Amino acid sequence: MQTIIRKWGNSAGAIIPAAALSKAGMNLGDTIEIDAEKGVIRFKQAEPEYSLDQLLDASPEKSLQVDDEDREWLQDSPVGEEFGE
Question: Which stretches does the entry tag as region Disordered (predicted)?
């Protein structure tokens, strides 16, 4: 496939054919990472970055409950250099 690089404000842009976007498994609005070297520009889907709150919100409620095994582990004394001793 070929396309043309065009001026887009102070930047440049190229149309990505729908078939290429689909083949790459990407969608409109996706965040991408760009890498460039002489004669080659590559872009790939960026890995999502989640906040702690987002991760906790997506966690099953059961996984956030402290059970007897957790309590035992939390009450154990340090066995190594946990506190930088």
Answer: 52-85
